[in-house]
Structure formats: structure tokens, C-alpha cells
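Let's practice the habit of predicting before peeking. Look at the sequence and jot down your guess about where helices and strands might fall. Then scroll down.
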Amino acid sequence: MTAVRPTVLTRVPILLLNQAEELGLDRRILMVKAGLSQQELKDPDGRVPSQKIWWLWQEIIRQVPDPALGIRLGISQKPPTRYGLVGYALVFSRTLGQALHRLARYSRIVAETIQLSIENSGGRCRIVLLADPQFELLRQPIELRLASIVNGMRNLSGKPVNPLSVEIPFPKPKDASAHRRHFQAPLHFGAPSAALLFRLEDLNLPISQADDTLVGYLDRLATQQVKALGAGTLSERVGRTIWFELNGGLPPLERVAAHLGVSARSLQRQLKREGRPYRSLLEEFRREMAARLMSRKNLSVHEIAFLLGYADPKSFHRAFRRWYRTSPRSFRRAS
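Done guessing? Here is the structure:
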């Protein structure tokens, strides 16, 4: 199996590069470090590999080692329309709640690396970020997304909407003043996941530019794009799901099937028909991703083992030797 490489909307690196320039960074150097070409950035509604966004973030963080960088960039991202189709779908929604549900439904159009889940319970709404395991190692893009969601809600409603609490899955920085100023809510650092908690009544706030006719048209376009992103062979879709589920440990067939909206028995039958048993797909996926991640010198072998769902690094070492007939460290030195 060829591992599925997630993509992001080209507007994402364009916006990030623009913001980096405002911080005084050299755009050309950043593009070289990220492996981005002018041709790739020509169409804002095109798509680029998410790996290049990872490299771009790495270089920006190296040059601007500010723990509050993600918050600062999230605050400066004001108009939702900067994200094109998805942004306009939010702007023309009737309420904040409708806009948030559209954001969750269409988030893959913007980036396949960070998706949203919305949970309503007890008069409260919890928005959870589901991140690609590789991006879970970087606080800045996760905090940017949290900050920009709050920013967007305030911008759309014209009201000073504040969350009830903010969950941040990273250690508390020495100076959290930027976090406190922006969120105006209790902050919970070291949380299991990135999440925002709101009152359900806040989600009923109206959006001034609401237009049912326009948003209906945009819904149809966005739904088509989401379907296009989900296209591909069954093994490719299974590979994409495995990548997102690995941070919860070794994903069983049942969990992957649920993510794909089919029964475990149906998925097993379809894979068997293709001659690709699930365990075989999982093994092939891990093997290819291990080699790709080993080329990222900033990741330790222990972190790579974690990213690939190994609870015990020794198990990863044994598997790696079986795949490549050498140790992870020897492989890295030779590459």
C-alpha cells in the first residue's frame, strides 16, 4: 500500500507565508525550506502536501521561538473568507452554531491534518480538534486553530464571545499572558486534547450576513469537494483513517470501519475481495511511514514509535529491523 499523503488548501501556506513576512521573515527562504514552489502557490484553491506545511511551520518556529506565536497568528486571522469556499459558507450561515457545524463538516477542505468534532451536552458545546499525529507534536498550529475559532466567532457575531474553558494539550508556557488576553477564559494546559467549551446559548447568536440561498449553494459545492477528497481506492481510504487513528493506539478494524461509515464485517469482506487483509495494510502503512518519518531529523526514534502507535519502543525497533534489516539509528545515519 502507498501511504496516503494528506493535503491542505493552498490558501493555508499562502496565508502563513504572508503572516511570516509581516514578522520580518524572508518569504523566499521559507519556501525553499518547506519545498514550496511558486507554481504550487499559483492557485489559492489548489492543494499542497501537508508535509510541506509541517516543514514551513518548523522553519518559522525555528526563526521565531515564541511560545505564543500560534496565538498571535490566530488573532491576526480575522475575516473567515480568507479560506475561500469554507469561509463564505460560515459567513452566510444563520447562527454561530450553524457556522461551527459547517466548519466541522468541511474542515477537511481547509486541511486534512486538523479536523473538528462537536459535542453538545448539558447546555454546553465542546469543540475538539482531531489532529494528524505529526502535527500533535507542534503547539503553534494547534493553538493557532483554537485562537482563530474564537476569533472567527467574535468576528461573525460582532459580540465578545468568550469560551467557558480552553483545553491545551501542551505544558503551560512561562508567560501565558497572550493566551489569557485572547481567550478570556480558564486555561487548562496539559489537557488530553485541544478543545474549546462554549455555552449553547452563544451558538444561537445570529450572523448579520446570513443568506439561506447563498449558503445552500455553497453547501452543495463544499459537499462535492469533501467527497472528492474522500475518493480513492479502499486501501487508500483505510490508510488515511489509520494515520488519523494511530494517536489513539493501534486502531482495530472496528474503529477504522466506523470512521469510514461501514460495518467491520463489510470492510473485512471488501478488503478480502481486494486481497489486502487489514493487518497486512496496517503493516505496510507503518513500514512506509517509518521510513518517511526517519528522514525528519528533528523527530526522535521514540517519538516516531509513538506516532506509529507503538506503546513500547522496543516493539518498534524489532519491527524496523524486520522491515529494513538494520536499526532505526543506522538507517537514519545512512539516509
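How did you do? The longest strand covers residues 114-121.
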